[in-house]
Automatic annotation (TrEMBL):
Pfam families: F-box-like, LRR_6
Name used for this protein in its record: F-box domain-containing protein
Keyword Chaperone carried by entry: no
Keyword Magnesium among UniProt keywords: no
InterPro entries, alphabetized: F-box-like_dom_sf, F-box_dom, F-box_LRR-repeat, Leu-rich_rpt, Leu-rich_rpt_Cys-con_subtyp, LRR_dom_sf
F-box domain: residues covered: 7-53
PANTHER family attached to this UniProt entry: ATP SYNTHASE SUBUNIT S, MITOCHONDRIAL, MITOCHONDRIAL ATP SYNTHASE COUPLING FACTOR B
One Gene Ontology CC term in the entry: cytoplasm
Length: 234
């Protein structure tokens, strides 16, 4: 500190500077800093800080070191742990030990997505990887409530089936990118009908239809997007 220059506290900075400072911090650092005083707590809760959220495991969702609200535009939950392999084992094959390993996070992501549906109507991109316990119904609710969703990228999500391919054109008018990579219960039939019915959607399905499915696909048809009507392909 220079002689004659008064000491400056971080709270002496104006709100714009504090927001800029917070923008460089990760979620944990933001939370810890916000707990030091009411002014920083108020900055922590500013919606402009929370347009993007990234999580590297389901356990991070329970830390409450983030704000979930209408400002959220991009959400990513990507889990690459070895435990993902256990989660992807069919329930009727899992041992008691494997079921106990899945139990703590069985509904973690699906419950979180329910909150997203309630609080984040402006979500534009959703990326889920290794989230084996989410299913079609979880994603259908996202499509119903997040009308601005433009990109849905799924990887290694064994609970996802051809049903989501059916519902996408019915529920999401702005979606232009759909990835279902390494999702073993997506079939060639589902992908083929999706491409025919919705050619304007960029569809990617690396390995999905080449993997061994553990569910029998239901017969279905993909509705085709048109400006004024829906055509059912049979």
């Amino acid at each position: 500190m220079m002689p004659g220059v008064p000491a400056m506290n971080i709270t002496d900075l104006n709100r714009e500077c504090l927001l800029h400072l917070f923008s460089f911090l990760d979620k944990n650092s933001r939370k810890y800093l916000s707990q030091t005083c009411h002014k920083l707590q108020d900055v922590f809760q500013d919606p402009s800080l929370w347009t993007l959220l990234r999580f590297s495991s389901p356990s991070e969702l329970a830390r409450k070191n983030y704000i979930l609200g209408p400002a959220l535009k991009s959400l990513s939950i990507c889990w690459y742990s070895s435990r993902v392999k256990i989660c992807n084992i069919e329930d009727w094959v899992k041992t008691a030990l494997q079921k106990s390993m899945c139990s703590p996070h069985l509904n973690t992501v699906s419950d979180f997505l329910q909150e997203v549906c309630k609080r984040c109507p402006n979500l534009r991109t959703l990326t889920l990887s290794g989230c084996a316990h989410i299913g079609d119904e979880n994603l259908i609710q996202v499509l119903k409530h997040c009308h601005n969703l433009q990109s849905l990228k799924l990887e290694n999500c064994s609970g996802v089936t051809d049903r989501i391919l059916v519902m996408v054109p019915l529920l999401s008018k702005r979606l232009h990118t759909l990835h279902v990579n390494f999702c073993r219960n997506i079939t060639r039939k589902g992908l083929s009908q999706m491409r025919q019915g919705c050619p304007e959607i960029t569809l990617q399905a690396d390995m999905s239809a080449d993997m061994i499915a553990d569910r029998m696909p239901d017969d279905f048809c993909i509705p085709q997007r048109t400006p004024g009507k829906i055509i059912i392909l049979r």
